[in-house]
Amino acid sequence: MTKRTRRLWLVLGGLASLGVASALVLNAFQSNLVFFFTPTQVSNNEVPAGRTFRVGGMVEAGSVQRTPGALTVRFVVTDTAHTVPVVYDGILPDLFSEGKGVVAQGRLDGNGRFQAEEVLAKHDENYMPPEAQHAIDQAAPKSPPQEGRPQ
Q1: Which pTM value belongs to this model?
Q2: How far is residue 98's CA from residue 78's CA, in Å, rounded to a whole number?
Q3: In angstroms, rounded to a whole number, what is the distance separating the alpha carbons of residues 56 and 53?
């Protein structure tokens, strides 16, 4: 084998290795990609079927139900236009409460309930996840301008 042929095989082997490594990295990235959806988008079936995603909004007042003797909690997430029932089996964050912002990660089951694997709550009274705030702003009905009030 000549020097030139050996160098050609070395370059081709390096390019093939780079291609395989790139494919593995992109596959791992795609598998771990989690998108955010609002309750309105969930009710419009805009969510990926069988994939993990996040849903966020406000915990609807009066919707939290705890199962006695278990860690299962049921609550409703709303963006003021639509709601999504959520079931979570685990310990909720200390700041989780009704009327506060929340983001839950999980999947929809066959009954239209969101089976959460993780629940994130806001960390102080001034913070809301940007996705949840945007969802609430988009879903809130626009009030007509009133006379004498600046817009």
Answers
A1: 0.66
A2: 11
A3: 10
